[in-house]
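Predict the 3D structure for this chain.
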Amino acid sequence: HYHPKDDLDEEFIEVMNIGEVPVDLSSVSFTEGVDFRFADGAVAFLGPGERAVVVESLPDFRARYGTAGILVAGEFMGSLSYGGERIVLTYGVNAVIQDFTFDDAWHPLTDGEGHSLEAVDPAGPQTGWSQAAGWRASSQQGGTPGRPGGGPPPGGLRLPGDETGDCNLFTERLAEICAERGVTFHYGVETDRLLRRKSESDG
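Done. Predicted structure below.
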């Protein structure tokens, strides 16, 4: 969550144990983007499938999300760049666990609009982590720290038979373009008429 809405101090990074055995975090650190040593934090181990977050400001995070059911390891030093940057997670003396670069242009809903940047496949190849297709905007404002994501982003849908994900990628990008041009989506609202004014339409 690199650019919270209204520029509040609610940034966070989530880590997840994608393996089948518990992971000792005592030698794990963020060394690029932000600085944080799990050895100095409140979470020593992650069980299979468990998630933990490191946050910009614990009081602000607690006020926004609460901490019930969320493993909060502690506060990182520094802050995430609104424009995107390189993030490196290491084990021991610079043995790289994850090394990727994100860009704020990938998914505009994550850049100050309140949505988090979520990995599409946390267990996917590392090469995909530095590409727009490897990420999506969270479906919920503020994201879901410490919990599984809420599914596809607004406008995104993977239809039956869409094995390549082309439909999902197309609708996600279409939703982003609409948002960039000032279109407001009203979910769960029935349209009973459509008015056309020259080149514009009003529902």
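The helical segments are 58-65, 166-180.
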